[in-house]
# Entry
Amino acid sequence: MSPDDEDGRTDASSAPSLRAVLLHGSLDILIHEARNLPNKDILSNTMGGLLKSCTSAPEGAASTSDPYVTVLVASATVARTYVIQDDENPRWAQHFLVPVAHEAAAVNFVVKDSDVFGAELIGSVAIPSESLQSGDRVEGVYPVLEPNGKPCAPGAVLRLSVQYVPVARLTMYHHGVTPGPDFPGVPNTYFPLRRGGRVTLYQDAHVPADGCLPEIRLGNGTNYRHGQCWHDVYDAMSQARSLIYITGWSVFHTIHLVRDGDKGRSLGDLLKKKSKEGVRVLLLVWDDPTSRSVLGIQMVTDDRGPREPWHDLHSKIDGPAAFDVLKNFEERWLKASKRTGAKKLTKSCNDTLLWIEKIPEIAAIDDEIYSSDSDPERWDIQIFRSIDSNSVKGFPKDPREATSKKKTMQMMYEIIYRALQEMGLDGKYEPQDYLNFFCLGNREAEETPNTSTGSFSASNPQDQSRKNRRFMVYVHSKGMIVDDEYVIIGSANINQRSMEGTRDTEIAMGAYQPHYTWANMLSAPRGQATNQPTKSIPESQLQKS
# Structure
């Protein structure tokens, strides 16, 4: 057996007879039922009463497989059914509409047995991608096969249907953000589009007030105001009256968010002060061995101390969408604090989360006051998260490195090159005519003759960097601006590890200003998203963070 996010990676699509094709559009999937699955709980039955106390099986009932199905495209988990307890003939009848942009030989339906020890592979069904390209619905009853190609059990089958819809036929992607109240936002997500609110965008945690960033003129005639992220965070926590909920990889509690003028308290001292005032302070953090409790506040310290400065993007949300951020925290908290194993036998009363409905100043907020169409500076906001029932158990304790940037770039260039070949344009254009990658560079001081060592090679990127005295500045941002009208900012990298939902637990916000869209202005918009500054702050002016 192996953990759920590891097993099931057997890829039936790797058979040499299947050709990988690009699936760019959506998959309409219906997983009906399975029949005659094998009993994978033989070990559990022999262990008897001890295991029954952990699995809550009824007295005298013999346990059998607890099946569920994951859908894999190019090894990425894009959908997952719920678990049906003790059933060799489960019926899910679950429907999924999954956006895809994957190069894959097949869409794999992997049947697993959920168990107290993790998950065990039962078998899989592979639907060749080439059979989906016509756009016709593929449906039927398929044998569930083991990795060696043999049936997992006599008569074991999975009934399903799947239809691929190319992006060219998905009209919702043809016009960008459309004007008016009918624009639905990103469909089939956990949180809906919230109309009305405020978004404050930040470049870096602290921006010096000495004019090192350029003045940018907005469409409303005013200058763009560079936000002071840590000042705003400190002010918000200082003024909190009901709750402060924090989630993150670690919390360096001795850090000072305000470091100029009247320096405020350290983060830890501020949180302790607010806790003593009766504000509910909760921290959901990575399970670090240096975690400790300070006055009932779960704190995480980082023994390495402050890091070198990073360039980053941040955002602040006011209005209805902030409730979705709160809802996400509450669901993560309840899952992370859920009792497991022998702890299930003891009574538990989780009263750490505040009952928001009983806080009048929060519950009484009227969404309508935020959604006035006459407000040209309003934002429409949607919260996204990559979480399923496994990843919400807690932060990953040993996350593996994601696919390298080099491999990601190579894959993207190969896709463009194949597209040029299919159009007969590979002799006229290069992939770099359509896609380029850039990074911020920092010009170093010129080397003196006695500090320059070694031979020089014009084909060596490191030697070229030394010659031009330009070295990459580490950019930690997770953000994207689309067509100068739509901005995405959050914790999720745009890579497989962050997006697939079964490894890292990520959250992001997507937002736009309805009055500053191409459809509304019939020209290039000049709203807040358009004017996110791209000029780098010199490293010497960055404060350690």
